[in-house]
Design brief:
Radius of gyration: 26 Å
Distance between the termini: 32 Å
CATH architecture of the largest domain: 3-Layer(aba) Sandwich
Helix content: 25-40%
Number of domains: 2
Structural class: alpha/beta
Number of helices: 13
CATH topology of the largest domain: Rossmann fold
Largest sheet: 9 strands, mixed
Number of strands: 15
Bound molecules: adenosine-5'-triphosphate, magnesium ion
Shape: elongated
Length: 387
């Protein structure tokens, strides 16, 4: 008998090569997450088993696993050779203190095991009631669910505590994208959500030093570190937007300033994405949140790029985004009060329904190609890895 962690992943929908790719990426990501710990990871049909770790570190290992996308739950389990007698003994020996109602949930993956899941549920239920006559079975609202998994590797796993994980798909299984990372609340959450669907991310941040402070940049680096614990290694492209903003301010209609800024950010993002083999752009925009996030504004910014633009929080209320930010630990950093480049030279009345035609016309007063190239050529790249 030994203590192990039984790792569950959602795989019902996976077939053929996808399944193989999913599991091998998931295993690699888990091992990468746990490089600092000595442990052993094995696969048995439909489950991963982690063993050989220092038990004193179990809590921290579970916390780390909760940041690995693709896992849906981690159970503290006992592993022993499959045998009805042994299972009965172990179930009877569980700690039921403080428990009034329980139920047994058996998963019989090993179809050679002589009892069906239901028969085993009954036998084990009887064993518990024998050993603890004050307990009652409650199939709907039990204080404790005792799970028994009889697996095809000849082992049985017993647990009564499941730690929920982040779910999603293993990092990397959906390719790579470029996140536009501001210092705000929304874009770190957007990065987290896309990474959760398997997208590895790089990030680009635009600053307008000296209009924006060095702390504003530090804040973004901190945010990148915070999401990196979920999103893996992040190359952060830091791009100066100062010259571009000055030019826009000097040459373009005030009400179109943000529209044109956005279009130039998108062009720069696309250039960085193409140079680094990143197949999509990700932003933290939410429909109608501000003038630059109306449907018309997003159409006008989309029209300068041909890569897909993913906006995972498009339909979220600010409250919902904030709740997620708190959950993933970026909120406190996001609300630090440093200026973002979008708030420097902020127009009083930004256009709510811009048109492509007008934007294109105003842009004729700028040398866009030169501005974009200059910005990209002078980028600074930091590699952040807190995974
Ligand atoms: P956030 O909270 O993510 O900053 P926001 O509600 O403040 O979003 P905007 O400032 O309009 O909204 O920005 C919309 C999106 O544009 C951001 O979510 C982000 O993806 C991108 N963006 C804005 N400013 C920057 C910046 N300085 N660098 C990189 N991306 C930016
Ligand atoms: Mg912002």
């Amino acid at each position: 008998m030994k203590k192990v962690l039984l790792l569950k992943f959602g795989e019902l929908f996976l077939k053929g090569r996808n399944r193989h790719d999913f599991i091998s990426r998931l295993k690699n990501n888990i091992l990468r997450k746990l490089t600092a710990f000595s442990c052993k990871l094995e696969e048995t049909q439909g489950r991963l088993i982690l063993s050989g770790y220092d038990e004193a570190q179990e809590g921290i290992i579970i916390e780390k696993l909760q940041q690995v996308f693709g896992l849906i739950g981690v159970a503290d389990a006992l592993e022993f050779e499959t045998s009805l007698e042994e299972t009965k003994k172990r179930v009877a020996g569980l700690n039921f203190s403080g428990v009034r109602t329980f139920k047994i949930e058996t998963k019989r993956a090993d179809k050679n095991f002589p009892l069906t899941s239901m028969e085993l549920d009954k036998e084990l239920g009887a064993v518990v009631l024998d050993a603890h006559p004050n307990l009652k079975v409650d199939l709907y609202e039990s204080d404790m669910v005792v799970t028994v998994e009889v697996r095809t590797n000849g082992k049985t796993y017993l647990y009564n505590k499941l730690h929920l994980c982040a779910g999603g798909l293993p990092l990397g299984s959906a390719g790579k994208g470029l996140l536009l990372l501001s210092g705000g609340i929304d874009s770190p959450v957007a990065g987290y959500l896309m990474a959760k669907r398997g997208l590895e991310i790089e990030a680009v941040h635009f600053h307008s030093y000296p209009y924006t402070s060095p702390q504003a940049k530090e804040k973004v680096i901190e945010l990148a570190k915070e999401i990196s614990s979920y999103c893996g290694k992040i190359r952060l492209h830091i791009v100066s937007f100062t010259e571009i903003q000055e030019q826009i301010h000097k040459n373009c209609d005030e009400e179109y300033m943000i529209t044109i800024m956005r279009r130039i950010m998108m062009r720069i993002a696309e250039k960085i994405a193409r140079a680094n083999d990143l197949g999509a752009i990700v932003t933290g925009e939410s429909l109608g949140q501000v003038a630059s996030q109306t449907m018309q504004s997003m159409n006008v910014t989309n029209s300068v790029v041909s890569l897909p633009v993913f906006r995972p929080v498009i339909a979220f209320d600010k409250e919902e985004i904030m709740a997620l930010a708190r959950k993933i630990g970026t909120y406190e950093t996001s609300i630090l009060p440093y200026e973002d480049c979008c708030t420097v030279f902020l127009p009083k009345n930004p256009v709510i329904k811009p048109t492509v035609k007008r934007a294109e016309f105003l842009e004729t007063s700028l040398d866009i190609d030169a501005l974009v190239s200059q910005a990209v050529n002078n980028e600074e790249i930091l590699t952040i890895d807190e995974f």
